[in-house]
Amino acid sequence: MEFISGYVGAMDLKGDIASLKRSSYIPLVAKTAFFIGSQNQNLNFRTGLGLYADLIKTGEQILEDQASQRRYEGKKDQRMFINLGSDYKLNDKTRFSFEFEKTFFGDLNVDWSINANLRYSF
Questions:
Q1: Disulfide engineering: 90 pairs with which of 7, 16, 94, 106, CB 3.0-4.6 Å?
Q2: pTM passes above 0.85
Q3: Which domains does the chain carry?
Q4: Contact of 33 with 51, CB cutoff 8 Å
Q5: pLDDT digits (tens, 9 = 90+) for 90-121
């Protein structure tokens, strides 16, 4: 199980006929997953299936135009995900990894997330 947190800053977008405001918040998400894979000396592959669960509501949003104002209270969501990743050992201290992830069955889904990184150990 993994816990993910951070900071999402406030937003204030204004147009000619409408505006959107969102308050800042600190998300807290629980992630649990099952992964299977294959590895050899330099190259690893893995695929997984899991669940994200928001433990704290997202920030309140206010949509306003010239005639009305609508408030949307933050919400919690649960969604499943699939993940496909690989990493390659370049040398004893350096690895390159690449991952694809898609979430579904939730209200706040991510179509595709792509993550690439270069990790140096010292």
A1: 94
A2: no
A3: 2-120 (2.40.160)
A4: yes
A5: 999 999 999 999 999 999 898 999 999 999 99
